[in-house]
Amino acid sequence: MTEPTVSLEALRQRIDALDNDILRLISERAACAQQVAEIKAEHEPGAVFYRPEREAQVLRRIMELNQGPLDSEEMARLFREIMSACLALEQPVKVAYLGPEGTFTQQAAIKHFGESAISLPMAAIDEVFREVEAGAVNYGVVPVENSTEGVINHTLDSFMDSGLRICGEVVLRIHHHLLVAETTRRDKVSRIYSHPQSFAQCRKWLDAHFPQAERVPVSSNAEAARLVKTEWHSAAIAGDMAAKLYGLARLAEKIEDRPDNSTRFLIIGNQDVPISGEDKTSLVVAMRNQPGALHDLLEPFHRHQIDMTRLETRPSRTGVWNYVFFIDFKGHREEPRVAAMLEEVQLRAAEVKVLGSYPVGVL
Fold this sequence. Notes:
alpha/beta; six-stranded mixed β-sheet; five-stranded mixed β-sheet; 12 helices; 15 strands; aromatic amino acid biosynthesis; isomerase; EC 4.2.1.51; Preph_deHydtase_CS
């Protein structure tokens, strides 16, 4: 019995020593971040402290160097929080997101900026755009597409009238749970609250398990969770953040019909992001209404071997039966072959608006 106790004590002492080293190194990193802030403030008036391309490069490097036993994404998340805390010493980042508190968009904002960012909920997507445009916040986070339900048209339409740029992206795996309160009579659930998109993403499960329950659409899953607190016969479809915020229990977990259900969010801001090494570009193109217009638009992408990842069509606001195309593709606008392709597209299109080049989501 003695030998294992001594061995365990030795391991604990080793852990304590490693903790001391980690503490010292994090403090040194934070001090370096403060020095960076002082140099920028002295030599770069109006300097940008948050650098999306730099953070993406650091996180990719950490994931490449990681040898376990922690998973590479878990390791990157730890470094994300360290970087977030250090950045807050330089200049706290203010982020507006589509609220209310407890939504998946807030979860995406925290995933991208870390817990040290100041996140502010907005009631609508256009309010997120307005807050960033007015300078009340540094960045905004808005949903743009879901793997099950497709694009969020309100977000695409907001870009038509905005001068903001896309500075980054976040892809969040969406897990829906059926949540109940302490006072809920679990065998008497007759009403379920949720956002309409969540109902659509869980339709088959609901048909199989609660076919008779009334489905009440609300403005957000967080609002659904709030309503459940006051009713004994209700449940809500929502995620982990809403469950934690309102103290709800999971009656059923991961009830989404597709296990790969995910939502992509965009980070919007006022800055152009330099090349990170693994980037994506988004643009809006208005084509002249003539035969072969779509072919003329796509041909330069094919010839320059540009990998287009999304093509969406929206009605133009400038004329009846005219359309604009929202396009995502791999590459940065400053890369020579991308720049050559964009120059050709501009010659063929009525209007081209580059929404931004930004790092591909790391986490």
